[in-house]
Design brief:
Number of helices: 11
Structural class: mainly alpha
Shape: globular
Helix content: over 70%
Distance between the termini: 63 Å
Radius of gyration: 18 Å
Order of helices and strands: HHHHHHHHHHH
Number of domains: 1
Largest sheet: none
């Protein structure tokens, strides 16, 4: 029990590391919370710090969610009891997302948990083949909405809402469904300001197709 409590604490601490914030401070000398949307997630890192640091922040945030339910759970060697092992992985993943959203390093004000939640789902996909299908569908959904609208927030919220729907369709275990509902709720809740801006046509918009055209079109 002591190891499990310690692992949950470590998972929270790992999830709490605000990569985008540290990148802004170290390499740009700025507080990313005072620029762009004020968020410390990968999207604002792309907007404020540029594509290089944005990509680094994205990879790091995904990795936080991936490491916690896989490597930490593997270290605890809970595989003898599959049900408890899955539950432990889910709890470790959720604590990583909680750490990202409410980080101890920034007075419990963190990101929105999309990338870290993605990492959690990737990590848990190693123990559920059906979750792999759900993961692919969610990524395709996010890309389709983003390419069609240019809104990262709308893509994230729409995909989050579909998480439990896809899990029900593919008959995933109830533990994963509960996790999906929690992660979906976290993401929608953390996007309340974005939803407000979307409704009032004030949300920042990317133009991915136009950017690709400029990148590959003849000079």
């Amino acid at each position: 029990m002591e190891k499990i409590i310690l692992s949950l604490f470590v998972s929270y601490l790992l999830g709490s590391i605000p990569c985008a914030y540290f990148l802004g401070k170290i390499f740009k000398g700025i507080d990313i919370r005072k620029h762009g949307s004020g968020n410390v997630g990968a999207t604002n890192a792309f907007r404020v710090l540029g594509p290089l640091f944005g990509t680094i922040a994205l990879i790091f945030d995904v990795a936080k969610g991936l490491v916690c339910p896989t490597l930490i759970a593997g270290y605890l060697a809970m595989a003898d009891n599959l049900s408890w092992g899955l539950a432990l992985r889910i709890f470790l993943g959720l604590t990583a997302v909680i750490g990202h959203n409410w980080t101890i390093f920034l007075n419990f004000r963190g990101g929105k948990g999309v990338a870290t939640s993605l990492g959690v789902v990737i990590g848990l996909a190693t123990v559920s083949n059906s979750l792999v299908i759900v993961l692919v569908l969610l990524i395709l959904t996010w890309l389709a909405v983003f390419l069609a609208t240019g809104f990262v927030s709308l893509s994230s919220v729409f995909s989050a809402i579909l998480v439990p729907v896809f899990m029900v369709i593919f008959n995933l275990p109830k533990e994963l469904l509960i996790m999906g509902l929690v992660l979906s709720s976290f993401i929608v809740f953390r996007h309340k300001p974005n939803i407000y801006r979307l409704l009032h046509k004030e949300e920042h918009r990317f133009y991915p197709l136009k950017s690709l055209w400029k990148l590959f079109s003849p000079k």
